[in-house]
Design goal:
It is built from ten helices and no strands. The protein is mainly alpha-helical. It is elongated and about 60 Å long. The termini are far apart.
Length: about 200
């Protein structure tokens, strides 16, 4: 009787990953992103640096993966519904994520990395921006097929007009007066131009 084939190494422990990611966000909240080191993350998480480096090559990779995981849990696109309700829900989730989470506080840095085309910017775009944008584009195309939006609507331009204001509000937040529930006004303004 042959013995079962054994895979090399131990299975990855998800609780260790969670402790590392929690340490990242705790430290960013306490001191900001730049001063955070792998040493500090390892100490806070109660793991060795080698444990971290087996999972992520650099601190930047770790931060991007941590943010991507948080966004995955925080931003859920509605499966269906009229396009106004979908867009209001999506934009409210984005606004909440940007304003109330630690990951939102490092978003301006990530935007700079994306704009500069750095390796971490490309990683963030591939892990977070491109998949979310594609999912939202699918919802817009479905609304066009249902007749809720005009047939000649340029979906890529529509995506820019939906997502852009949230990013601008985040980047310019310290110079703006807070505005109560601006999301429905934005959506209604967009839909007025996109109606069949």
């Amino acid at each position: 009787m042959s013995s079962p084939t054994r895979r090399p190494g131990r299975p990855r422990d998800a609780t260790i990953d969670e402790a590392i990611v929690a340490a990242v966000f705790d430290l960013i909240e306490e001191v900001g992103l730049a001063p955070v080191t792998i040493d500090a993350i390892a100490e806070r998480a109660g793991v060795s640096k080698a444990t971290i480096y087996r999972r992520w090559a650099t601190k930047d990779d770790l931060v991007v993966d941590a943010v991507a995981g948080l966004i995955g849990r925080s931003l859920e696109l509605p499966a269906s519904g009229d396009i106004r309700a979908v867009l209001v829900a999506v934009l409210r989730q984005m606004e909440s994520f940007m304003s109330m989470s630690v990951a939102g506080s490092i978003f301006p840095w990530l935007v700079g990395e994306v704009a500069a085309g750095t390796e971490i910017g490309r990683h963030y775009a591939a892990a977070v921006i491109i998949p979310r944008r594609a999912d939202l584009g699918t919802l817009i195309r479905q609304a066009i097929e249902r007749g809720e939006l005009r047939a000649d609507l340029d979906v890529e331009t529509a995506l820019d007009l939906i997502i852009g204001p949230v990013i601008v509000r985040k980047l310019m937040g310290r110079w703006r007066q807070p505005e109560e529930d601006w999301v429905p006004k934005l959506v209604d303004g967009l839909l007025a131009g996109w109606a069949p």
